[in-house]
Amino acid sequence: xxxxxxxxxxxxxxxxxxxxxxxxxxxxxxxxxxxxxxxxxxxxxxxxxxxxxxxxxxxxxxxxxxxxxxxxxxxxxxxxxxxxxxxxxxxxxxxxxxxxxxxxxxxxxxxxxxxxxxxxxxxxxxxxxxxxxxxxxxxxxxxxxxxxxxxxxxxxxxxxxxxxxxxxxxx
Length: 171
Prior knowledge:
With 171 residues, the protein is mainly alpha-helical. It contains 6 helices and no strands. It has one domain. The longest helix is centred in the middle third of the chain and has 30 residues. The protein is extended and about 70 Å long.
């Protein structure tokens, strides 16, 4: 009983075929993936600055916090790919692009808002970061329909209260 063994050429062909199929599947969403990965990286760097972490000395680095951020990124990427795939196979490819573009902008908004919040913590005396942070929050809310804008304002107030409470309990 000889079991068939794959040769190096066969493995190379299988790998190339699999990689090509995956690349073709993810090509329509690659720009959105790249956009979110860039925003993720910016958010991580800002978060590291807020926590006092430098690349030279990685003291205070929390692998758990980084792992949670990676899980969040992968969740965002999965949501985008699943929604695009479902809508595309339902015959709505052009509408799917509009949907994932909108969702990607929302995810990027969350990343940029959190990034500037971290920059404010890292550089409390920098007024430019504080102004940019408040402009980002205000302009986004202003652009949303009134019902959604009111919900976002309530979430922001709840978040500010939670942050105030956390500052009081950690000091």
